[in-house]
Amino acid sequence: MRYLLVDRIIKWVPGREAVGLKNVSLSEDFFDDHFPLKPIMPGTLIIEGMAQLSGLLLEETMKENGLKIKALMSLVERARFRRPVYPGAQLIYYSQVSQYNELGGRAQVRAEVEDKLAADCELLFSFHQIDNPHQEAVRRNVLAAWLEKAGFE
Predict the structure, then answer these.
(1) What's the total number of domains in the chain?
(2) CATH number for the domain including 138?
(3) Interacting residues of 66 by C-beta distance below 8 A, sequence separation 6+
(4) Mean pLDDT of successive 10-residue stretches along the chain, which has 153 residues
(5) Three-state DSSP class for 30?
(6) Structural domain containing residue 19
(7) For residue 79, how far is the Cα from the chain centroid?
(8) Which residues are catalytic?
């Protein structure tokens, strides 16, 4: 991953659910353009953060079922943005796996700030075999760091 939109994992149950958080900082590059006098986190990046958490959750779910795959987000359904996310906020991502098989998976996701819904949608992923050992090592290291920091491993 070139950029990470999850800072920490709070809850991790492969096959079921995950909760992660993102500390939204004014120093993020995207605030330079979105918007100069009223910085708001772009909705696409909120979806990307939920997708990063959900994709890793589905990958670990399939790993426990004996498959080594990469989950690629293929569809965003019913995306709704309920309130803007400003610098200084702590964005909490919730992901629940609703179904999966050897071809792909689906997750119900939402993002909250101070217990108020900021965004929600359903994400669909397609699964692909991993061919790049370097990429796989980077993903494993990121996940291991998140889980270790949260006391899951």
Answers:
(1) 1
(2) 3.10.129.10
(3) none
(4) 85 95 94 90 97 95 86 97 97 97 96 98 94 83 81 69
(5) helix
(6) 8-150
(7) 15
(8) 34
